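Quick start: what a row looks like.
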Amino acid sequence: MLSIGYFGDGPWAHEAFQKLNEDTSIAIKFVSVRYDKRDPVLLRLARENNIPIEISQNINTEEFIRKMKGYQADLFVSMSFNQIFKRQMINLPKYKTINCHAGKLPYYRGRNILNWVLINDEREFGITVHYIDEGIDTGDIILQRTYPIRDQDDYKTLLEQAYTGCAEILYDAVKEIQQGTVCAVKQDTIDRIGMYCGIRRPGDEVINWNTGSREIFNFVRALCEPGPMALSHLNGEEIYINKVRLVEGAPVYINIPGQILGKTKEGFYVKTRDTFVEVVDYQYQGKVRVGDRME
């Protein structure tokens, strides 16, 4: 029997919880949710399974650590938890503490990874389970899997893949730890420096029309619903853009980026730095006219 303490939040954590909880050789000793945004689904799952709930504004306090010692968990598991584990917490369980990260480490550390891989026009994204150390997503890799990104994909489809993919790889990593078959890989043997992605904030969703059509296509699909959607301004009003389409054979020519070139059945064409794109899904209260300019 392997006993674990489970720290989690959101759909990522729901599917993983179910897989771990269904395994009769694994005992979830407690569930801890985010302090500031308490996941109602994960709380319900814990209560339905008679699993204690532990919530702390700071999991590294002596008081919380004393509580954790009482559970005598073999392993701590983090799935979309938002607090930093410090050394004493990391090393408290017999098998230390692991995290599931929706990024291909060491190249996609940090936040909002599924947005960034689309913005960067990647052809695949990764999911990694790693030991937690005192850095940010820098611990030794236990398991890593990659998934292809097609032009038909966007933030929503990658999220759906990641919810299931995270549950599967996290469960498999826990089983490797339980069976003693882990062959951990140090990240600096893959790349000495790696890459870090910062959290996206309000204002980062504004489109720069003076970039290429492919860049704008990637930018918009990275921010589509359930994200905030890409934002521009037309005639002084906000226009939220959820989808643009690349136009096959569109000519490269000089004109004014952001200018509306023509109407289409589904939307309208907009000039970019090089060619133009078709806006096919948007929210705007005003009237779109040819010759108007988005800014």
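That is the whole record. The chain has a mean pLDDT of 96. The longest strand covers residues 237-246.
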